[in-house]
Structure of tRNA(Ile)-lysidine synthase:
Amino acid sequence: MPALAPEVAAVRLAVRRALTGLPGAGPVLVACSGGADSLALAAAAAFVAPRLGRPIGLVTVDHALQTGSDRRAADVAAWAAGAGFAPAEAVRVDVAGRPGGPEAAAREARYQALAEAARRHGAAALLTGHTRDDQAETVLLALARGAGPRGLAGMPPRRDLTGMPLLRPLLDISREQTRKACAALGLSPWEDPHNADPSYARARVRADALPALVRALGPGVVDSLARSARLAAADAAALDELAAAALPAASSAADGPAGVRAPGGGLAVAALAGLAPAVRTRVLHAWARELGASPAALSHRHVGALDALVTDWHGQGEVHLPGGLRVGRRAGRLTAAGPPG
Ligand SMILES: Nc1ncnc2c1ncn2[C@@H]1O[C@H](COP(=O)(O)OP(=O)(O)OP(=O)(O)O)[C@@H](O)[C@H]1O
């Protein structure tokens, strides 16, 4: 019997770790584009899941943005059916008319379709094939736009996708390993032309920025960026916890000791002023979200303007937040009004 390729073993081990102890009896659903990362993930899941008594399914999304995309989706679904996935489904989505650029619109449509499919099949979790290289690219892109620790934390290995657990078992596996795993298993991955399209920032990072860093600083740079993401994630989680405790305290300080906390009830400036800036800005961000400001539209500029009501008060006017909300400072409190109508 030929020896098991080390890359195949590494991917299987990563998937086994992610699936062990997963609650719920439903299938795990692999989100597979047919690319090397998610194909290696699917092949590993097909091996590991049955051994853990876990059913497996696979969904591939057809964004209908390129000619032949329907054939690619059908090929992936057919391979999956043959490899024992049930369901083995190709889902077509309509990307047109969504907000943001084409990349963001395709991602939103894809995640919506994947979450819907996972719910429809009673899945215990959805699995994606993001690798350590994807993580390093995410961190570089976050650095380039001046993100804080939450952005630099990159992608978590596990998150909630509208009520469905989304797992990323391959965050410690390199893209080279997924390619080698596919080759060792005789699988021919699909090459997504978008991955090489220089009009996408991520494609430029993948093709130019990261290879330039590796040339200048050595091959360890990808692993180092992924490690920085893990460290930033731990710090961001600790700061989020501090902020989660400080928000009700600042809110009840504003309402008086017997006050019942209500998001619109205001925040006490004195309580906010005593917080470390990293905690205070998180409290203000969380409060703005509670008030109804959409997280996607809430920017550093909005939070900075709220912070200035506390730390740089000179009688300035109200701060306008997304969704028609207005926040002002009166009698030692930040209070909110709106949206209009
Ligand atoms: N069309 C699709 N259908 C289903 N899942 C997808 C699709 N596109 C991406 N995914 C999922 O999202 C993950 C990340 O995709 P992305 O395109 O960002 O990275 P990638 O490195 O090109 O991945 P891959 O090599 O697996 O295509 C994939 O590994 C896969 O799990």
